[in-house]
Every structure is written in C-alpha cells, then in structure tokens.
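Problem 12. The chain below contains 163 residues. Write out its predicted structure in token notation.
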Amino acid sequence: MTDSGRPPDIARIIRVFEAIPHARELGMHVIELRHGHGFMRLPYDARFIGNPKTGVLHGGVVTSFLDTLGGMVVMASVADGTPLATLDLRIDYLHPARPGSDIFGSAECYKVTDSVAFVRGLAYHETFRDPIANCTATFMLGATGFTGKTDTPGPPSGGGQPC
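Solution.
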C-alpha cells in the first residue's frame, strides 16, 4: 500500500473487476485476491478461437486476461481509489493454449513506487510450471485512468485506459 489513503477494499476490487464489460464477456473469474497477489480463471469459449483449424484461443484473449489480472493485483497493492493505467505490457507466448481447457492466471505486484507499479504473471492450464504465457507489466499510478471507485465501471475519461 502507498503511504497515503485507506487500504484497498479487496471484496470491492473483485466486484469491480468481474463487472468490467470485457472481463464479463470473456468470463473472467477471480479465484483469489490478496495484497499483491491474485489468481483468475478464464473458461474456454469457442467464440474466442483464433485458429478454427486447431481450436486454439486467440492470443488477444490471453493478453486481455493477463493485463486485467495485472491491473487487479496492482489495485490490491495500493491505497484505495488510486487511479492506474497500463503503461507497458510484455507477453511471451510459450506454447498455444490447449483447446477446450480453461486457462488459469497468477500475478504478483512485486514493487510499487510513487508513480509506477511492477507486475509479473503467468497464464497456464493445470500448473504454473508449464506456462502458456508469461508477462511483465508496469502500471502508472495517479494517472487519469481506472480507479475502481464504483461497482459499475464506465468508459475512461481523459484518455486513460481501463485495466
């Protein structure tokens, strides 16, 4: 948590993130969230297949999943209501997701400064030891962006991007 403000309201953060329109549409579900760490599940959905011949999900779905998870763990690591926006996101795809199988994700916010939070995460099937993808991300803090202040997120104002 940053020096100022109230600690994050974990239950509210979960409600907010599961209500984000793209997270709802993709079926993202929070498994666990605590200060600096989070776990989510992304159910397999044939609507999001990127390659019809193989049935593998589109890489953009995995990217969205890891970016959303990263933003959520940052929000659980800083003072309640701190605005944030994705500053940088790097994803290394290690192998295709298995068709028909849910994807799980884990992420940790391992460093927070006055203006930037640093995250690393994994997407995997049964075990994190065989990841589908890994990510490193940075999130700008205090920017005009997603604050998670309400349970019904709307479009960003001032050009910020929701997580």
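Discussion. The CA atoms of residues 17 and 117 lie 18 Å apart. Students who got a different answer should revisit the alignment rule from Section 12.3.
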